[in-house]
């Protein structure tokens, strides 16, 4: 026989040969995208596994991943995030205390099969910037059409039993070497590029690989259509598998199958799942048990090829595989054959063992189901595989129409899954999904449930679940969860649950039955563990000596060895409980077990000679009324002639079973057939066997299903049926006793930490509150032990000697308690989280802080046996010194003792206060900075001192926060004393929304996820840039610019600040910027006396050169003529008036003149708008005077009136009186493009008389009604200023200084701009100034000599010359 390792290596060699046929594959990637710029190097290390948990060797710390599953680019499910959206989402996840993100790199959907590595580079590096780990799925069974269109044979062949035809599936053929080559090629491309990227946590080389399309519509097919029916690859693979399995002995196969095949070459592959479980001969002859084993092996060998490829191209990162963890389908015909034990074994045999295993593990939020607890999936694979388990997907959907309770319970129930996973021994968890995916709402039933899994809505506003998960994740960070988990021990197990591959024909029913009983054990305080056949044979009496009972939930098939071992169980003193099936009726090949009837009598006290299943469903998908049948259970333990009954719906029940030496505790009558006599439902017995060294174990059988059942009070019914066996008959007791309102619906769990301290976990499965007492003497060893509530931040009073305490829980809430020795006990089991006698918990803290001088409140709960003062600090991680530096500190609280809460204000100082020579480097979170808020308790001052520096630190704790800047001055333009403007370039990272429905999401959310709410100015900010005289302490304002905007991500903007006409002082000035919530006032009230006076006479095309800079920032005079015949005579400002003088046209075409007012940006026109100004034409010439509202495209709305007098008139109009000018540049008869917004207001005068001079004056422009109505109130708690001050040293009023310095826009005290002028340079500058002065005199002389040519037509020729 050739070893499996050699076979896999040979397969890999063949596939790699095919890969090499495409020469230069990775070189093509390098040529197109260049090498990967790994910015994460040095920020974190590549993860490894130590002590069963993830460890960062660079940071020397353990990591417990807690985060989100996030779909980025996946064409098949309509996910197309932009790079801006990726950055936004990862940044928001980080603020949610996420440290880990599960993403997908799907196959390239392009002709050259080269992935868009620029996108992947951005994702990997952005994750590194925010110190997030990526768990990357790189193996998929779905290929893009660009590949399968050219190579249809890559797709598997499935059998359609309804139409009796074979056809191409949507998934690839696991047995096709070319399909494996595509799989390998993609893995090699990705892993070679990112093999050194520390932001990659692990490679997930496959996700939910099944032997059918998991997403096909079962409303069209009775069962899933299995693949593997091609004769080229799959059928030979199947026959080769059988040959190896039976060691090339066809006789052995015939004996197992009860067939007579002449050779393996003629053995057929069964087309359909056996429909009738009682058709023993048909099932055995079909060989379906072996077919299931081959299907499991086909998937496993495919994964093994990927594991070897991954190891070859990236030996640095961990490798895993992702499988469905809980329940995908409960019908046996739809067993998907994705088998963890087989996958792990095949990868190991091929030479690359998986480092850990990954599961997609979803609960069912339904009253009565035990799968509200998701521990089943985690424990199942931990017990089976013996390697660490990561939960890559878990969660709930508020659009779940299959489980309609979920919508109302999701917000509270979702976070509990995280604590439960940690307590169950998982090494991390990802909640699916980051955002809602609304496109699924248009899908047919039941796929619309996929829409609502998000923590945030599709437009990224927060759902309530976002806040709840944030609270849990923040608490995990505060207690440093890995410190508690690393080195911890699983609870000792009480019940071994047997589930081996012998029962694969009933796999899905077994899975659902066990899943629905697992939580019942936990509610009883018992710890179950899963065992397969091998473990059952090797470990039952050795590894788990704490096991007291063995449970057989679905054991109609057993190997001969396991069947015989049932006797060993009871002889060894272990109890034996079976339900649903009478165990061992058939062998694994479905041959009758000849010793079955005798064993049922001796072990369980039953006569099964006439036994038949009275009802047996769950083979195919059916309506629930066909899947479950009603039974009435009667309690026979009393003497009541009419015993009480319980109404339960089951999927399986037995008939014609009689008792021999068993005792009947419950009987049942099936409602489906009342004519049959009452039947035994639960029987208990002491086995009638010999040979035990001590007391025999007891036995019990439920002759019906117990886990997957329905009923009006099914949680209590199920627990009652189970307690009748385990508590009353077996005499087992839970490790903790719960009593009180709702206690029977609370799951309990625990773990022993490395030093012997104990974690206790409770989760309320119900949607209603619970208030109960817990007795836990096993975990609370006398009054030297205390109990801390880690989730809520408080100490729990314990009553001794009963070691009891009270708990109150909301519906769907989970609580993590911590039992440890008090600090004064001198015992080793002290708190790992905080061994100090004074306990602190941060119950509320800002998730973002701006260095704006405003205070944020931090709530700190305390429990202290002494008098302390509490303060909080803002700290930043210094990479250079590798330590935390404090950049801000609060005042101390009043002295406190006992238990309570304090609220203290913490202020992030202005940026310039953090730029001193001894200040820590300020790096915003957007730039990769790491910040935290620390709470510190101080004892009595030492040596009579005062303040924190003189006091003893007796306790501390901390949580993550993000420090960002709202607005920052990047540069200040050259500024001279007589300058008209100074240009100030400002940038901003992030501004918070203040609309209540946006729940404080960043304002740039609306830029990257537009939803149409920004175009009416409902949420905007006002940017204010101010120049102040530093000599008067910052109170002497010299100038300011006010600019409104609603762009959260417009990071750069240059603002021109108009300086006063009197100039700036020779002393230092301060330039600062701030953001104020709300739009600036948009109404216009322009009085010309506010501008400097001037007079100009120049040709029209040169007029801008003569308008002072301060004026042309807002105003510009103009003259217009269609014949280019009118020209500007004179314009200017004198006092409160602006004027324009011009000659009218000489050749008949009307000309116009006036002034144009420029706004900072386009403003929507509102119904209340009213515009007015004063006008006078001094000569009394007739003219049309208009107010024009001009949009950014040059189109106009105008109001005009005829003026024929020389006195002042008022031009006034409401918006309703304006009409559209259809002669605009983008207007025509079929479309009017005016956008109902304005960016300019033009005061226009149309000259109606020819050959005359018009002398026009304008005064006091007013426009009201531009301001939006107050639709939203800014919350009182919102900071009025979001920004930073930034000082700048400006030049003296006149002349140059020997040096110019101002603080750098980069947050470093050591970086600055400087211009130093040596003596030679100063002489050169002086000479240049002399030349400039002479040139100015010459231009002035020329100007005066040509003045007359500009005033009178007779001199035009001279002017043109």
Care to describe what's here?
There is one protein chain. The protein is 22% helix and 30% strand. It is α+β, with helices and mostly antiparallel strands and 1361 residues long. It has a ten-stranded mixed sheet, with helices on both faces. Helix 1 crosses helix 10 (288-313), helix 3 runs parallel beside helix 4 and helix 10 crosses helix 11 (340-350). The radius of gyration is 40 Å and the shape is elongated. The chain starts with a helix and ends with a helix. 46% of the residues are buried.
Span between termini: 105 Å
What's the Cα radius of gyration? 40 Å
Strand order, main sheet: write it out: 17-16-18-19-28-27-26-22-23-29
Q: What are the segments in which pLDDT stays under 50 over at least 5 consecutive residues? A: 1-24, 942-946, 1226-1231, 1284-1322, 1342-1361
Work out the helicity level: 10-25%
Structural class: alpha+beta
Q: For the report, how would you describe the main beta sheet?
A: 10 strands, mixed
**Residue-averaged pLDDT:** 84
- Count of DSSP E strands? 66
